[in-house]
Amino acid sequence: MNFKSGLSCNFASMTHSIILQNQTFEMHFSGALFWAEKSMLLISDVHLGKVSHFRKYGAAVPQQAVQQNFDSLTSVVNHFKPESIVFLGDLFHSSLNTEWLLFEQWVQATPKEIILVSGNHDIISPLKYEELNIKVIPEMIVDSFLLTHHPEERDGLFNFSGHIHPAIKLSGLGRQSVRLPCFYKTEHQMIVPAFGEFTGTYTLEPCDGCEIFVLLGDAVLPVPIKEVKKKRNYRK
């Protein structure tokens, strides 16, 4: 697939590394972000329980989508083998349902330190997480990095967040276009993609000085933003 923006699958790889504040971060095609020096895996907006919630009210969502979330979590953990996993909010979509039992099984099979930075959808009692030795906190500061669910700006700190489910729209030949989830980086912030199945996305416009890394199949690809903006302006 070739887009006018210059995006090409010839440069595809399942991860893409970036250096921030002299630290190495690997963006994975699942939407997870691995902090190499800390052996910390950052994952946002899994929305476990959402598939079961929708199916309960008659939505035509395939049952196998429930297992896909857990399979994806296991796959990315096995790939990076982190010492800790930090969920950047909206781990569960709503109240308890049958997927909590699957989550308990997954945690028991994943002997890692697990931390939840709570998001707006995280309404399950922290006591339930404590029973699984999962720490629930409103935010996390590690060195010069601020980990939150909602995007924030704070002097002296680089912010990692989720919540937005970022995506970007790319135009191809003729009238073709595609919307792809992405890592959206500005000078002091990176918004990571939603990890979960059936979470939806929100299309962001490329800004001056930002960097975009799209998820395309099993690849992470940098997007040449200047060319995308130039072609959009030309069509106006």
Descriptive keywords:
single chain; 236 residues; alpha/beta; nine-stranded mixed sheet; seven-stranded mixed sheet; 16 strands; 31% strand; globular; disordered N terminus
Explain the layout of strands and helices:
Elements: E1 15-20, E2 23-28, E3 33-35, E4 40-43, H1 50-56, H2 64-80, E5 84-87, H3 99-108, E6 113-117, H4 126-130, E7 134-137, E8 140-142, E9 145-147, E10 158-161, E11 166-171, E12 177-186, E13 189-191, E14 202-203, E15 211-216, E16 219-223, H5 225-235
Parallel strand pairs: 4-5, 5-6, 6-7, 9-10, 10-13, 11-14
Antiparallel strand pairs: 1-2, 2-3, 3-4, 8-9, 11-12, 12-13, 12-15, 15-16
Give the beta-strand count.
16
Oligomer: single chain
Structural class comes to: alpha/beta
Radius of gyration: 18 Å
Distance between the termini: 25 Å
What sort of overall outline do the alpha carbons produce when their principal axes are compared? globular
Fraction of residues in H or I helices:
10-25%
Taken as a percent bin, the fraction of beta residues is: 25-35%
* Count of separate DSSP helical elements: 5
Main sheet summary: 9 strands, mixed
> What's the average pLDDT?
86
Stretches where pLDDT falls below 50 for ≥5 residues?
1-12, 230-236
Order of helices and strands: EEEEHHEHEHEEEEEEEEEEH
Walkthrough of the structure:
The N terminus and C terminus are likely disordered. A hairpin with a 2-residue loop joins strand 15 and strand 16. This protein is of the alpha/beta class and 236 residues long. 21% of the residues lie in helices and 31% in strands. The strands form two sheets. Strands 8, 9, 10, 11, 12, 13, 14, 15 and 16 form a nine-stranded mixed beta sheet that branches. The chain has a seven-stranded mixed beta sheet with strand order 1-2-3-4-5-6-7.
